[in-house]
Design a protein that fits this description.
- It is a single chain.
- The radius of gyration is 19 Å and the shape is globular.
- β5 and β6 form a beta hairpin.
- It has a single domain, classed as Aconitase, domain 4, CATH 3.20.19.10.
- It is built from eight helices and seven strands.
- It has 201 residues and is an alpha/beta fold.
């Protein structure tokens, strides 16, 4: 998993509540177990018209936000079914961070396991960041995970809270496999000992 420490990028305003995982990546695109290639289907039903052309009114299709890597979104982001394809599609599109007042638990956990930083802020803070995000190409936010701060375009800082273990995993690029591999020596010692003590296993 790619390490996450500091990130600076364009923030896109998604002023909608209850953005569920089916809206993020519709069910017909869940047939793959690959983590790549899903970004093209992100927000498929609202990003594209029925004929396949781009919906010019959707925020990520507007020139200033085509390269947005931060989403500022309404309450209850990532609700709905527990598909891990949702964070896969966000990451493949280029989204590194999602900021909201609340997240669905499973989506929230899946973000950390896939290298995306979900940040919870207050309603007042979200309103400020939503205003910042509405400034088009000038809507640059600076995310500092080590110091747990969001840097706004006006120079103000917003502090956020994060679980220390999850912070450690993101900064060091450790997903579940990476965490397991840190115990490789202990696992090897156990297997050798078992071969001697329980050769029939």
């Amino acid at each position: 998993m790619e390490k996450f420490d500091k990130h600076s990028g364009v923030a896109a305003p998604l002023n909608m509540i209850n953005i569920d995982t089916d809206k993020l990546i519709p069910k017909q695109f869940l047939k793959t177990i690959k983590r790549t290639g899903l970004g093209q289907y992100l927000f498929n039903e609202i990003r594209f018209n029925s004929d396949g052309s781009e919906n010019k009114d959707f925020i990520l299709n507007k020139p200033a936000y085509r390269d947005a890597s931060i989403l500022v979104a309404g309450d209850n982001f990532g609700c709905g079914s527990s598909r891990e394809h949702a964070p896969w599609s966000l990451l493949d599109f280029g989204v590194k961070c999602v900021i909201s007042t609340s997240f669905a638990d499973i989506f929230f956990n899946n973000c950390f396991k896939n290298g995306i930083l979900p940040i919870v802020v207050s309603k007042e803070q979200l309103d400020q960041l939503m205003d910042d995000a509405n400034n088009g190409a000038n809507s640059i936010l600076d995310i500092d995970l080590e110091n747990q701060q969001i840097g706004r375009p006006n120079g103000d800082k917003i502090n956020f809270q994060i679980d220390e273990f999850r912070k450690h995993c993101l900064i060091n690029g450790l997903d579940d496999i990476g965490l397991t591999m840190q115990k490789q020596d202990s696992i090897g010692d156990f297997e050798k000992r078992r071969e001697i003590e329980q050769p029939w296993v």
